[in-house]
Write a structure and sequence with these properties.
Layout (H helix, E strand, L loop, with lengths): L5 H5 L11 E2 L1 E4 L2 E8 L6 H7 L7 H24 L3 H14 L2 H12 L4 H19 L1 H22 L13 E5 L4 H4 L7 E6 L7 H9 L3 E3 L12 E5 L4 E4 L3 H19 L14 E6 L2 H7 L6 E6 L13 H12 L7 E5 L29 H4 L1 H18 L2 E6 L5 H13 L3 E6 L2 H5 L1 H7 L2 E4 L1 H9 L17 H17 L3 E3 L7 H10 L3 E4 L4 H9 L3 H13 L3 H12 L2
Parallel strand pairs: 3-4, 4-5, 5-6, 9-10, 9-16, 10-11, 11-12, 12-13, 13-14, 14-15, 15-16
Antiparallel strand pairs: 1-8, 2-6, 3-7, 7-8
Helix pairs in contact: 2-7, 3-4, 3-5, 3-7, 4-9, 5-6, 6-7, 10-21, 11-12, 12-14, 17-19, 18-19, 20-21, 20-22, 22-23
The structure holds phosphoenolpyruvate and magnesium ion.
């Protein structure tokens, strides 16, 4: 997949070795080398000024031009969505819907009445919505990038320019952008775009999701990368998070080849998971619905470590009945009735996952508000009905079912939840996402049977940095020593109590970090099914003693970059 032809390297500008490597957050491992190719971000100002106010007879005529541009842009998204699948298709379909949004159209219409012409009317309306979305934070703020992309495309269509976006490379290239919208990244050919690097964006950005799907190395939040001139020859290391200039092409080719060989080797790993000296490790899948659970079941996993139930209801206005919930949950449980188990998480509605029938409206700070388990404080029936649905599905399928609550802050909350779960004959646990839960993990384990560390939120709350904030990617990094310390405290509590403590956030999918987590005493790692083989293969190469050394090195490092470097050195990468 990673084409490397040294001949291609000589036609591009070389930079001198005195440039120190740029660095960012590594999100998809692998090494790629090639010339930098920039994404064309903006519509040319000349074309916009030539277009002026468009010369329409009245606001209605200008609105028709807007409608026509929106229809064309939405059609492009839909066509791209039809040509792709999975997460990429979902985000493109969402973008098509956003382009046609009625609220956006009425804001444009209102601006047109004031007379500035369609380009200014669209820009003004988008600005207004971006301000609202950004103010809402979380997943909504992330949509600001999509809105800006829609604005550029609609304006390009109005003024008669080609749509901005990714130019088709002539040679295998490294795509570099400020940030990437889903429409930029869909349809990318991994033979021609061999790595993605963005100046902004975090580990959960669209860029990271798409790069994972394409299986190409990716580094996000790499400050200064936009200043690299087009054509600069760089080596991108998606495990170290570095972008190096001035490398020797033969040396670069050898590194890319070695990385390709390693990744091929990882893809053939088929379990069961254990360290090189035979310590068994549980690898589990994160899923969101029946089809997802079904396809994950054919991977070398011992079950599901995180079933995000709220994702089944994102588009529901009303709460589904207990019977309907039982049907939905049974679809997820049944592929694992062969002796494996499923950890079902009760609704984590609120903040970045608003659910119409559960979320509280108008909270000042939804990430710190009534989300997850807290929704049951004022609406205990919501939790009771969901637990009834889960219990019915467990009984129907015969699958071993564990149930955990998200956003648990106190031991009393954990005890009350555990009582309800046990009353239904199921195994209770809680997620450790709030630092208070990590610090009191030993007391949590007196009242529940297992803990599962949600490193995405634990990092957000430990570092006081919005997990979606593209400018704070260096803080929302699970390699932050303070986050690792909280994980180590929780893992230690599990070892002492003899009860399972797993990790189900993104951190579990990082093969390097996985070694350190196992070294801390974590008993299971749950991740996107695609990540299971690389993690399993990595663990099979190291002894538990090396895992312990990796834990010590990561915990003792001054920052995430140093932690990664220390663990890489220990593992001989
Ligand atoms: C987490 O916070 O790490 C987690 C697994 O939950 P979610 O990502 O769904 O918030
Ligand atoms: Mg969470």
């Amino acid at each position: 997949m990673l084409l490397v032809n040294t001949d291609l390297f000589y036609g591009v500008s070389m930079t001198t070795p005195e440039h120190p490597p740029l660095s960012g957050t590594p999100v998809v491992p692998g090494v790629a080398a090639g010339p930098v190719l920039h994404v064309r971000g903006e519509v040319s100002p000349d074309a916009i000024s030539r277009y002026g106010d468009g010369g329409f007879s009245d606001a209605d005529a200008a609105l028709s031009a807007y409608d026509e541009a929106v229809a064309a842009v939405a059609e492009t998204f839909s066509t791209k969505a039809a040509a792709t699948q999975g997460a990429a298709a979902e985000v493109l379909t969402a973008s098509a819907g956003l382009a046609r949004d009625k609220g956006l159209r009425s804001a444009v219409s209102k601006n047109l009445q004031a007379g500035p012409g369609p380009v200014a009317a669209v820009q003004g309306a988008v600005e207004q919505f971006v301000t609202i979305f950004t103010g809402m934070g979380g997943l909504m703020a992330e949509r600001a990038t999509d809105l800006r992309d829609i604005e550029r495309r609609v304006v390009a269509h109005l003024v008669g320019e080609p749509a901005p976006g990714v130019p088709t490379p002539d040679v295998p290239s490294i795509l570099v952008a400020e940030d990437l919208a889903p429409s930029d990244t869909s349809g990318l050919d991994p033979a021609l775009v061999t790595a993605l690097v963005t100046e902004r964006g975090g580990a959960t950005s669209h860029t990271a999701i798409i790069a994972r799907q394409l299986g190409i190395p990716c580094v996000v939040g790499a400050a200064g990368v936009m200043a690299l001139p087009t054509g600069t020859f760089v080596v991108v290391d998606g495990e170290a998070g570095t972008i190096e200039q001035g490398a020797d092409p033969d040396d670069a080719r050898a590194r890319v080849e070695e990385s390709r060989r390693l990744r091929e080797e990882l893809a053939t790993w088929s379990g069961p998971a254990a360290t090189a000296d035979g310590l068994p490790v549980k690898l589990l899948a994160n899923v969101a619905d029946g089809p997802w659970a079904g396809s994950a079941a054919s991977e070398p996993v011992q079950g599901v470590g995180l079933f995000r139930t709220e994702l089944c209801f994102l588009d529901r206005k009303d709460e589904p009945s207990v019977e309907e919930q039982a049907d939905i949950y049974a679809d997820v449980l049944s592929p694992y009735s062969d002796g494996r188990y499923v950890v079902v998480r009760t609704l984590d509605a609120g903040s970045d996952k608003p659910i119409a029938f559960a979320t509280h409206e108008g909270e000042e700070n939804p990430a710190l508000g009534v989300r997850g388990l807290r929704l049951s404080f004022g609406n205990p029936g919501l939790m009771d009905r969901q637990l009834d649905g889960i219990a019915a599905a467990a009984e129907r399928t015969g699958t071993e079912t564990w149930v955990m609550a998200p956003m648990v802050a106190t031991v009393a909350e954990a005890a009350e939840f555990a009582g309800k779960v046990r009353a239904r004959g199921l195994k209770p646990g809680v997620m450790v996402e709030i630092p208070s839960a990590a610090l009191l993990a030993h007391r949590m384990l007196e009242v529940v049977d297992f803990l599962s560390i949600g490193t995405n939120d634990l990092t957000q709350y430990a570092m006081a940095a919005d997990r979606m904030a593209t400018d704070l990617a260096h803080l929302t990094d699970p390699w932050q020593p303070a986050v690792l310390q909280l994980i180590a405290i929780t893992a230690h509590a599990g070892t002492e109590a003899g009860k399972p403590v797993g990790v189900c956030g993104e951190a579990a999918a990082d093969p390097l970090l996985a070694t350190a987590l196992i070294g801390m005493g974590i008993s299971s790692l749950s991740m996107a099914a695609r990540a299971v083989r690389p993690v399993g293969a990595q663990l099979s190469k190291v002894t538990f003693e090396t895992c312990e050394a990796a834990a010590e090195a990561a915990l003792g490092a001054p920052d995430p970059m140093a932690g990664r470097a220390a663990v890489r050195a220990l593992l001989g990468h």
